[in-house]
Amino acid sequence: MHNNWANNLKADFYDQGSKTLGVEFVGSSITSGGDGADTTPGNEAVVDENPHIEFFNGQRGYVRCTLTPQEWRADYRVLPYVKQPGAQIYTRASFVTEAGNPGLKQAGETQVPSRSASLVETDTERIRAQERAARGEAIR
């Protein structure tokens, strides 16, 4: 997959008003080649056509899951780049699903933007992140 996803599983994907039956958490590979990107115009189009997709991200990383009797929490941990050493991992997004209440809810401080917002990460932004890391500066 090489992408991060958080999806609501619907009884009828063609009817967004249909019952949410569960959730799906999909994680990227942290060791795959290529730096990945937060999103791309092509991927934004896929998300726009599939409103059950609550989160999509193409950066490398992993999903840290924490389970309690009350909820399942998924923290999407990503790197700004993987082609060089020194990248600092950070939480891109967090979601919870509560026991007995299927469906995703955003959690944590990092909010996923609305579908109308554009978050296309450019090569220039990636290069700047690499330069900041090389100087020992924190990645936001």
Automatic annotation (TrEMBL):
Domain PhoD-like phosphatase metallophosphatase residues, every copy: 1-76
Domain of life where this protein originates: Bacteria
Biased composition (Polar residues): 108-121
InterPro entries referenced in this protein's UniProt entry, alphabetically: PhoD-like_MPP, PhoD-like_sf, Phospholipid_Metab_Enz
Record region (Disordered): 100-140
Ranges annotated as biased composition (Basic and acidic residues): 123-140
Family matches, as PANTHER family: ALKALINE PHOSPHATASE FAMILY PROTEIN (AFU_ORTHOLOGUE AFUA_5G03860), PHOSPHATASE, PUTATIVE (AFU_ORTHOLOGUE AFUA_6G08710)-RELATED
Protein name: Phosphodiesterase/alkaline phosphatase D
